[in-house]
């Protein structure tokens, strides 16, 4: 078995769609980034990449590469889950936490699990928790959203 942890954060900006865990969430601002800036997908990707011991998200999808401009992060995660499979591992468990002062994410968690399961990680093997940051720091001031993830890989 292998374990990995991942973290990501993105700035909230006007004129962007807010996509978290593969789900578009109605909100006046969205996350800024080279791709769709899906902070939860990115944290999970780094957790899986870390467990595989093959660098980080930037190694596989450099933000200088125009191929990944506005990329759908769900597709990138799918690629990483497939990379794990090709390396002889299945994603046995993902636990994650998204930190956002606003909007309230709880109503979207089930939808995120369904969306994330399109990447090959079984829906019943994904846990997502949503928290605010109690008004503290960049999350608390509504400047951005952050996510943490851990994953367990199991030898196939
Ligand atoms: Mg990111």
In short:
The protein contains five helices and seven strands; from the N terminus they run ββββαααβαβαβ. With 156 residues, the protein is of the alpha+beta class. The strands form two sheets. It has a five-stranded mixed β-sheet. It has a two-stranded antiparallel sheet with strand order 2-3.
Characterization of the model:
With 156 residues, this protein is of the alpha+beta class. It has a single domain, classed as 60s Ribosomal Protein L30, Chain: A (2-Layer Sandwich). A 5-stranded mixed β-sheet has the order 4-1-7-5-6. Strands 2-3 form a two-stranded antiparallel ribbon. Helix 4 links the parallel strand 5 and strand 6. Helix 1 runs parallel beside helix 3. The radius of gyration is 15 Å and the shape is globular. The protein binds magnesium ion. The site of magnesium ion has 4 residues, from strand 1.
The N- to C-terminal Cα distance equals: 10 Å
Q: Specify the CATH homologous superfamily.
A: 2-C-methyl-D-erythritol 2,4-cyclodiphosphate synthase
* CATH class category: Alpha Beta
Main β-sheet description: 5 strands, mixed
Our count of domains comes out at 1
Provide mean pLDDT, rounded: 96
The Rg value, from CA coordinates, equals 15 Å
For the secondary structure, the number of strands is 7
Spans of 5+ residues with little confidence (pLDDT < 50)? none
Ligand identities: magnesium ion
The proportion of residues in beta strands is 25-35%
